[in-house]
Design a protein that fits this description.
This is MFS transporter. The chain is mostly helical and 404 residues long. It contains 18 helices and no strands.
Length: 404
Amino acid sequence: MPLALLALAIGAFGIGTTEFVIMGLLPEVAGDFGVSIPTAGFLVTGYALGVMFGAPLMTVLGTRISRKRMLMLLMGLFIVGNVLSAVAPVFLVMVIGRVVASLAHGAFFGIGAVVAAELVAPEKKAGAIAMMFTGLTVANVVGVPLGTLIGQSIGWRVTFVVVAALGVVGLLGIAKLVPDMPKAEGVHLRHELAAFKDVQVLLAMAMTVLGFGGVFAAITYIAPMMTNVAGYADTSVTWLLVLFGLGMVAGNLIGGKFADRKLMPMLYVALSGLAVVLALFTLAAHNKVLAAISIALIGALGFATVPPLQKRVLDHAHGAPTLASAVNIGAFNLGNALSAWLGGIVIAAGLGYTAPNWVGAVLAAAALVLAVVSAGLERRSKVSTPDVASAAPEGARKAEPAHS
């Protein structure tokens, strides 16, 4: 594999770390700025909304310049955002820093995947793309827990300085190792937007929002839930996040394996399982062992939906997958924002730190309903589509030879 893939993986590692590490540091950040835990949840919501709007916007803007230069600019944005978060004097400035960093997220993975595929022979493209995304999965096993440990031991600001330094390494690696490539073909927005007329594309994105939202309704507030309800020490949150990361990796691999063969059954199993586990997590959160098992299962079941949902969007985008794919990355983060906001509301209403689990269960169940509706519409469409031969005009059919 080319060394350029390592540079892309390092960038993906940094982006994955900064997205998820905040969830383990919410109590520290909230205490430092003197805001409530639900208010601190806006750091998750702001980042997620930045990805949602930034993914399609930056992807379109990225067609104006070479892919290498665009990747370097995106890493520059990432560095600036994390430095701003690290030195933020007030909470609002930190929210702004999170949004600035988030603008790099979706476009980096979208453009980076194209670059990774072009660096290798055609038969190795999938492996190259997987190599880049390995940075994201490893971030959740190593980067997020380590960042949480640093933040709890030395200070959360140090965590964001370290993440910014990772961005610098990624930027230098891209500048040194990624070859110059011609700028992408111009994006015709009318053609790209036509993909969103397909109801299956919209349903898949809605499933993405609700299903992924179910995961982060619980995980956004995992630190206060585990320390105040389960009775874990603050430092134990690090290892709980390792379990979540391992679950993510396992679920992602399982979802990827079945996405080509049993896509809809995979979604049914993952979404129904996720809804059940999240509902039971309300009770399991009071027991240390059951809480740890639940966290791993939430990571596995939630991320088992990622490959099939992404593939379903691409399958129905009909020749305009670039923008649809980028928007679906934004949809994952819209789910993050929605669930973080709803979770904050139920906590602020005095329902307790386990209340977001019920929010997540409802969101996952709603995604399951949409999956059933989507499959039903697809079956009806296939049944109602006339056979090509029978639909041909009578005069266009060739006369059958006479048989004696």
